[in-house]
Amino acid sequence: xxxxxxxxxxxxxxxxxxxxxxxxxxxxxxxxxxxxxxxxxxxxxxxxxxxxxxxxxxxxxxxxxxxxxxxxxxxxxxxxxxxxxxxxxxxxxxxxxxxxxxxxxxxxxxxxxxxxxxxxxxxxxxxxxxxxxxxxxxxxxxxxxxxxxxxxxxxxxxxxxxxxxxxxxxxxxxxxxxxxxxxxxxxxxxxxxxxxxxxxxxxxxxxxxxxxxxxxxxxxxxxxxxxxxxxxxxxxxxxxxxxxxxxxxxxxxxxxxxxxxxxxxxxxxxxxxxxxxxxxxxxxxxxxxxxxxxxxxxxxxxxxxxxxxxxxxxxxxxxxxxxxxxxxxxxxxxxxxxxxxxxxxxxxxxxxxxxxxxxxxxxxxxxxxxxxxxxxxxxxxxxxxxxxxxxxxxxxxxxxxxxxxxxxxxxxxxxxxxxxxxxxxxxxxxxxxxxxxxxxxxxxxxxxxxxxxxxxxxxxxxxxxxxxxxxxxxxxxxxxxxxxxxxxxxxxxxxxxxxxxxxxxxxxxxxxxxxxxxxxxxxxxxxxxxxxxxxxxxxxxxxxxxxxxxxxxxxxxxxxxxxxxxxxxxxxxxxxxxxxxxxxxxxxxxxxxxxxxxxxxxxxxxxxxxxxxxxxxxxxxxxxxxxxxxxxxxxxxxxxxxxxxxxxxxxxxxxxxxxxxxxxxxxxxxxxxxxxxxxxxxxxxxxxxxxxxxxxxxxxxxxxxxxxxxxxxxxxxxxxxxxxxxxxxxxxxxxxxxxxxxxxxxxxxxxxxxxxxxxxxxxxxxxxxxxxxxxxxxxxxxxxxxxxxxxxxxxxxxxxxxxxxxxxxxxxxxxxxxxxxxxxxxxxxxxxxxxxxxxxxxxxxxxxxxxxxxxxxxxxxxxxxxxxxxxxxxxxxxxxxxxxxxxxxxxxxxxxxxxxxxxxxxxxxxxxxxxxxxxxxxxxxxxxxxxxxxxxxxxxxxxxxxxxxxxxxxxxxxxxxxxxxxxxxxxxxxxxxxxxxxxxxxxxxxxxxxxxxxxxxxxxxxxxxxxxxxxxxxxxxxxxxxxxxxxxxxxxxxxxxxxxxxxxxxxxxxxxxxxxxxxxxxxxxxxxxxxxxxxxxxxxxxxxxxxxxxxxxxxxxxxxxxxxxxxxxxxxxxxxxxxxxxxxxxxxxxxxxxxxxxxxxxxxxxxxxxxxxxxxxxxxxxxxxxxxxxxxxxxxxxxxxxxxxxxxxxxxxxxxxxxxxxxxxxxxxxxxxxxxxxxxxxxxxxxxxxxxxxxxxxxxxxxxxxxxxxxxxxxxxxxxxxxxxxxxxxxxxxxxxxxxxxxxxxxxxxxxxxxxxxxxxxxxxxxxxxxxxxxxxx
Length: 1322
Description:
By secondary structure, the protein is α+β, with helices and mostly antiparallel strands. The protein is built from 27 helices and 47 strands. Helix 9 (788-806) runs antiparallel to helix 10 (814-823) and helix 21 (1144-1157) packs antiparallel against helix 22. The longest helix has 29 residues, at 726-754. Residues 102-108, 225-317, 417-475, 561-724 and 829-841 have low confidence and may be disordered.
């Protein structure tokens, strides 16, 4: 056997490895290996044996996940790969028939192409584990929402949900006999469910059926004796107990072991060994059920010796039993994987994260407790009963168990113990090939001599050396009564132990291979390679020579053929439990040569040796006691295997990073700009530092320097903390939330302070750049007269000043932007064709139509190396692996992303406040909001920023432009790219969100649109974009400019503009009405026909109602799923959540009170149907939406209207927290999102405290509830000086018309809108 760290770039980025959370070999001997990691990617490899060792070839990267990938699993027959992770998605991958390279920008390294077959969502919660059914028809996942879900692999649909755990489901397993499923949770339990009814039919096909739970293994009474890691105790196989076992099975010949009945749990009373002098209750917390015989094929039930407490070695023993002890580690375990497994024949269930507890009576009556890490083993016949055996002696908790797919014959002789010592502390010393023995290891010192066996006198002590020789001489006794031998590996946090079902002790122990916790195990299909993944970002292999593990078993994995007599004996027995294989020997000494003792353990006692039983008698022993007793969890004097004992190969590879010479091919690194990723163990998953003391002194050999695996944590640790109870869960999550917010704000402050090149006042040269139109700047960059770096530093300086005034920035990209420019070719270096280069390298195309122009981005837009938090702390410290399509498009156009801007949490507000980044204020008046959800963008543009990109689902670019005084266009869906973003409502398509441009000036907005849509072909970057280039002829025609060929223009008298003076819910305030009249007067003066359309349109209130119900048809659950306990929620979103959370009868009573008592028809109509919708209800709403759109389609033609003029909102900017009252006052923009119309906003005037006062006849009491909330905060005197805009609306995909009319209005205003002066920033 040979242990080899594979030092390649598995999932690296700029030489920083991401944690690898899962790995799996493809079944069938095809050699593919799948890995999933914290870089959000799945990668495929081919692992082969080369001349110099293992050779790893890169095959492909599968990049569809948006967060870390926690588990990858091939279907049992291969060909289909399932992956799942923190984004809550399960993706089923199949190989594509055609090869389309997709890795990086050029894809030259991808040797295979894989495509998603199905994508299944799990309500946005993290998925920890996945297991396939043996026929590959279904798979089960375990999630962070405490639910296990079963999906149909053929259709990708959810079949069943099992929500019976009270904490995260961290492991799932599917019985290879297709009869059971098992789940393991951090609530300290293992649940086992049956998949078949009494008639043998699957319950998964019935819509109302639920898999019955057979067992919930949580607690049990544990015997007083303990097994120390340095001294496993032998079983109690005294002559008296053996005779008792024989006498308890009448009619069974001692030479004919009774075969088991079919593998179904029963609760019949079974014969037991004679009890020890320590009494135990028969009660336990294990649930059981009586079921009929299973229709599954009969299985040979593996049997271990009954777990029984041994007699006390001394009369004054201070070791006490544990009543109702928990079997598994609690939720504070520093790993979030508990990957349990069935053996290949389905006979055993192996569960990690076990804890064996004992207590000791000290001096003065003080009781101390000791917990030993272990793995519990359950049998198929006793699957609803306590575990039959366990594997004590692990230094750290176990996280995964995996069985080799190859089954071997039983060994006829004891294996030769190999002792290996490795020291890699010196790079000059070659690493010896394993397992060449280097020296004879010394005998492990015992804490104290074992007491004499009961049948000997005090003077006749048995020497440990003689016992060890006896062990080696007699050969291995099979622990489990099986005609074959199965091999399984256990991964703890810092070591891997290899066992088989024949011997008590491990085959080998691998330690110090990695410096961080192990995460997963996988066996190759030939059983000769075990691969181990680690959160340090690397993998290692344990390889075996052909035949080293034994001879492959070729018989059937089933019950042995029985003769007539044996069959009759089987029929007369009601016993379904495993067959014990007693032994009369001492347990061998500890495998740890330094005499390791578990933490907090006292010196270990070796259990007494029972009298030696002749071999002939041992071979004729009948089936022994039932494991159903409550003390069967014992690790004491048990007939179950201690399995960590004796002299075994301890493979140690310290400083494994020194290993070299592995033939590899490594994929190229993912572009990240200048971002330096945090260490892998601190960036994506929660890992807690835990020190471990070194081994005990006393070894005769010189002490060698070793690198101990250590769990590391840091300031970037993700906030998904494990909790102890509902109270502490809230507290810990809240504390982590506060910590993450402080870290992000401190990180931003440090970066701002370090950017000294961007400090200082604005110079005359700076102001010249800031006031020059971007079209002129691009020309100067192309000509080489202006350096892009100078433009970047000017706008960067302005952005920092704007941030100091309004808190408008989130992520500051300036250092990365400088590096992107440094890697870019000069302007005269040739035009970068298409998106071939910036797609992967991150450089800027300085020959593009936006060459050198800094562009600000809404926080939700994905930039490689930076977070897209959406205002949630749970999404912080999760930097994107690479640029999204929108950023790649902008870079290829020559634009330089330089900052990201603030948003409201949930993105559903006209304010921009969150706990992560703080509150963004209006640059005109800090007491008011700059708008939302693109509020940070509008604040920056109002103070001098140039162009930016935001999103709009209910007015989120138009309302900020109205509140802060800038220009924005809401494009129709499919006109502007929308991929490569994060959102608070993934999957919401009732009212689609669109991304759209914003700018400080009208000319810049128009040029930005022409550059992207007219010259860059965005449909080549984003599949959602329609291949409709910018139609310059339409813009010219409607702008009044002569057409290039015909010289004609659109006659102004033929342009018919409709003025919308109310949305039917809230009439516009005096300030907004004055701006609307000013815009209408401009168009009249230009010769356009302006008509009032109020009262002629389809029901406007119906549009608001439909849009509101569609947008929140999930009952606000999706945006709430990202929010941590105690995290601040926008007041408007809190209002929506409060209404959605009302019990339906209460909500109806509230509706009746509003409708009948307050006589508020408008508010009552919105409240009545609020709340989560079923698929049936959602489809009805979508149908109503389409019918409503059809009415408007007909209206345009009937009224012969070309464009609509309307207010962007009923009032100017709202004060902070004003959205609690004005949450539904969004009809002027929301309506056109529902209709998917092109709509733009431009500033027209500012609030005047004298001109815009409310009339004396105004009465709040006459208003409906929505209008009352809007006007509650209208005060012309306080609002004096705030911007007021107007909205221009065209039909779907008529962006050119809208831009033309916006320019007409902007140019025709007599009193031009005055932007904030740059001088005010210094």
